[in-house]
Amino acid sequence: MEVLTEMQTMMYRKMLRHHVGHEIFCPTCKRIMDCTRAVSFDAYTNTDKLIKTWIRCAPCYDSIAANVAQCARDTGSRLVVSDGRVLFAQHAAVATPRKRSPKPEPLVPGTVYEVKHTSGIIRARFVCEVTRGRIGCNTARGTKRYLAINLATGRDIELKSRARFLAVL
Fold this sequence. Notes:
By secondary structure, the chain is an alpha+beta fold. The chain folds into two domains: 3-94, no CATH class; 112-168. It is built from three helices and eight strands. The protein has a five-stranded antiparallel β-sheet with strand order 7-6-5-4-8, with no helix packed on it. The protein has a three-stranded antiparallel β-sheet with strand order 2-1-3, with helices on both faces. The longest helix has 21 residues, at 3-23.
């Protein structure tokens, strides 16, 4: 796709979003409009002066499309149609869906893991998962902490993230 065509498509998408956000309801059928199922059509004079912009939901536009085109031909005006079904279908085809990372397997108490620690990568035995409430916070949610024992020193380690447990040994 050429750069100019891509920029023009992006501009039409943004204009359609603006019109839908401004209008909200279809003037004909009073349904709530969605920019992916709305159509905006602009009438211009021969000197490229905007006469008027109309916006309708796609079913209402489909029912009057032939009449609008005929009226534009009769008056000698130029009609620019921004159809959200086409504009956003192209955008959806280009966009790649996000892939969720798989959930990590639960940590098993008593198992030895490689742990990423401030002193480097160490071996530690996982003890338990603890949820601590926040002091001075109105919410009931707490923060998860992971307790482990450093096998080299025998000291307790409190880790804030599950991601710090690298591999099972």
